[in-house]
Design brief:
The complex is a heterodimer of chains A (387) and B (199). With 387 residues, chain A is α+β, with helices and mostly antiparallel strands. Chain A contains eleven helices and 25 strands. Chain A has a single domain, classed as Metallo-beta-lactamase, Chain A (4-Layer Sandwich), CATH 3.60.15. In chain A, the strands form six sheets. Chain A has a nine-stranded mixed β-sheet with strand order 9-12-13-14-15-16-19-24-25. The longest helix of chain A is centred in the middle third of the chain and has 18 residues. Chain A is globular. With 199 residues, chain B is α+β, with helices and mostly antiparallel strands. Chain B has two domains: 155 residues, no CATH class; 35 residues, no CATH class. Classes of the chains: A alpha+beta (387), B alpha+beta (199). At the A-B interface, helix 5, helix 6, helix 11 and strand 21 of A face strand 3, strand 4, strand 5, strand 6 and strand 7 of B.
Amino acid sequence: MTPEKNDESRPPSSDEVEISVFGPGFGECIVLHVGENNWIIVDSCIQVDQKVPAALAYLKKIGVNPGDAVRLVIATHWHDDHIRGIGKVLEACNTAQFICSEALNTAEFLTLVRAYGKRIMMQQTTGIDEFNHVLDILGKRAKSATRNDVPKFAIADRILWDKGNSRLGNTSISCRISALSPTDAASLASKLEIVDLLPHEKDSKRRLQALTPNQAAVVLWVNVGGVHVLLGSDLEEISGSNMGWSTIVQSAILPEQKARFFKIPHHGSRTAHCDSVWSDMLEANPIAVLTPFRNGSVTLPTPDDLRRIIALSPNTYVTAAPTLSRSRKRIPAVERTIKEIGGSIRQIQHVMGHVRFRIRPLGIGKIELFGSAAQCMGENFRPKCNR
Amino acid sequence: MSIQTTSASEQLWQDNVPEKRDSSSTETPSIINQIGSDLLLSHFGQPIGRIIPTTVETVTTIESSVVQPPPSPSRQDTFISLQKWEGTVSYIGEESFMACLFDLTAPGPDEEAEIPIKEISLDDRELLKPGAVFYWSIGYQDSKKGQRTRASKIRFRRLPAWRIEEIKGAEDDARKIGDLIGWTRESDSDDYLLGELRK
């Protein structure tokens, strides 16, 4: 599919389905338009230059009021790269319901958030800080007693939202969003791991590290008027464990339809690859979108990851090149010292990329690329055509 | 007075100036005043980590060949910070570790660093764990004898231990917010419409 030139600020028409994936190099966010100005936000990342969540910046750009139009704010898991700014998102989307993984539906998780989230002991934010902000917002809404803001918890095979039939243009269509994960086993395993993270008296304090592997992430299946979308979050493949991708594919109630759009899980990592997802859940040559990840020693996707994914679909897009980084200029004495000790510093590139797919029911759809987004061609990236 | 470059082995006299900033560095944000100065004075008052032996960059000296005054007994080593970061350890390898950095001198985009483990003092090695918070400072170390060396100092933050009151407080707070927003309610079985997915 050839990307088109277009204007990012043009809103979709009422009968257009949109899947927008944002990724600045660390983090990702997905914004869905499911028709008639109903919007869904999945995860959050920050638009660094503006210091605002990418989803809010985008909705503002296309003239959508998040307070009126966003129905759901979904946090697929609590890793930093999927949750930055989600508190601000929920605050702005004041009629939206908050959804997160059933794995977090425990008193222990709340204790963890309250214990770690209220201590200001470092400059860098964490996913726990964001969840703490979410709890405060939900608490404030509950106290106002104007509406029911009970969060909803996602678990495999649960329908999260069903808009029912409505008219989009000349067609009557429905919209349904379902969770395909976490499984009961994954949810239980994560709940037990959360218990292990709880602080104990006399333990030294330190920054909380996220759980790995990520078995409790929420995978979503979206059906809008026959346009099927699989959003893979960061779920990894953990074979033979009643959790992970194989378990989803083997589910007795796997959707019979195949998805045309696939948000590739876990930044294209091999640990999240499952052949049967491509053969059993996706159309041939689906539109596959991934967001890069760079943190510590980990850079995703790797060249091998890209080769594997492109072989599965030539319609593969990435929101940003994964290896871009450059050192920040500092005064010579500092530069020399870093070099002399054998250290190195790289700036994590946060050039926001945006892959947008718009389609009318029964239409063929179109891909648009903005910012640093590009189509993957071999191990390289095809220059985007919007800039 | 004049400025001259000299070797570290020469005995020079220099005014003892407490924490001061190089003119080429940027303005210290207020948060540094709050956090950084305390940390630097308390943690970096003594040499920590590796001090790099190097030729003195620029040293203020007395012009003429007068006899240098002996060091004042009250004079102490001073550290002139050029650059400070707060770091969080993300990965530990065999010889180096990776960390996410937050620039305390001139806040900007996130950075990541690879730092040799040998830069960590033996006292701090036990604190090198994923999630550990440290402060990294690069600057000039001026000795009481007037010698100046460039220095890289890494000091791991020794956070206080959890107190039982904090844990109980978090549990109480969690219970209250959970009750208020219905976080820990039992899942509503009506929502589990398994067969509906096939429709």
